[in-house]
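Journal club prep — side note

Before the paper discussion, L.F. wants everyone to see what a predicted structure for a comparable chain looks like in token form. Sequence:
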Amino acid sequence: MTHDFFLSPRAVYLIVFNLVNPQNSKIKYWMKKVSLIPNVFKVLMIGTHLDQFQQLEEKKCSQVEEYIQKITNEFSNMKFHFFPVSCKTREGIEKVTEFLDQMKIHFEVVPASYVRLYDKISEEQEKSKEDPSSLFATMDRYQELALKADVLKESILQSARFLNDVGQIVFFKNPVDQSKNYFAFNPPYLVCCTSFLFCFHLIPIEHSFCRLRYLHLLSQWNSLGKME
């Protein structure tokens, strides 16, 4: 459920699985996830344990190849590249690195102000570890940081989308009133809190560490409510 926070078109997706037993991997699950991303940049299917695969019986090899072909046919609308590799013998690894290296020419050049804003958000992330209220921010707070980073006022929302896409923040856009946009400045911790929200009943709340996280989670939610 929290994976969607980090799925972005501004990313290269590597779906890694064991060539010997691809049926035991979540290839289809991740292919479905990535297929829902609009204008996804690149998808690489990396089949590992090539050295073991080459030692399989011909019948088993054919079954594996048929399974992979079935998946690629199912997601034929996606543009992806398949690389069989062996971490043991290093076979195929160089082809992957060369392919990724060639992709550098496709990377987008962004304003230097976005980089400065990225750094300012990093400072806010450090604060959130001690002060739960700084985990979330209003549109006014984000705009204040953006202007300090010399982001043009007319580019503030664009900078938010960019930082959201690269995983630095989670941008909750209000479709009705942009002044009520919300920002989470620590996506990994937000995921941690969200997962804890769904799973805390499985963990003894009497445990001191679990209780601390539970109380911390409540303070996060309370700080968000005060922004209304």
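L.F.'s comment for the group: The longest helix spans residues 112-130. Keep this in mind when we get to the figures.
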